[in-house]
Structure formats: C-alpha cells, structure tokens
Amino acid sequence: MRWLFVGWSVANTLWVFYALRLPSMSLLSSQIVFCLIDVAGMLHYWIL
After folding, report:
1. pLDDT, tens only, 2-40
2. How many other C-beta atoms can be found within 10 angstroms of the C-beta atom of residue 41?
3. CA 30/CA 47 separation, integer angstroms
C-alpha cells in the first residue's frame, strides 16, 4: 500500500504537467487535490 501512493503521486504529477499544457483548470484542480490526498496517505503510512 505504501508504494501505491508513490506510484499514484507520480501519475498525478504527470497529469498536473499535462493539464498545465492544456487550458484545463478543471483537470488541473482535480489532479492537485489528488496529489494532496496522496501526500496525506504517504504521511499516514510512512510517518504516523
């Protein structure tokens, strides 16, 4: 489960870069929220 958050974060980060190339604020905002959720998951499983 720990490495799933890392892999998912990499995928979401790539989507963020893709959304920045497109004028798609909805895609960008959803992927930023997903990245924040991934960070919370990594903190939960690795630190807490």
Report:
1. 678 788 889 999 999 999 999 889 999 999 999 898 888
2. 17
3. 25
Report the C-alpha gap between 31 and 13 in whole angstroms. Answer: 8
Distances (CA, A) of 26 to 1, 2, 15, 46: 28, 28, 12, 30
Radius of gyration of the chain (CA): 12
CA angle 26-30-36, nearest 5°?
Answer: 150
How many angstroms from the chain centroid is the CA of residue 41? 11
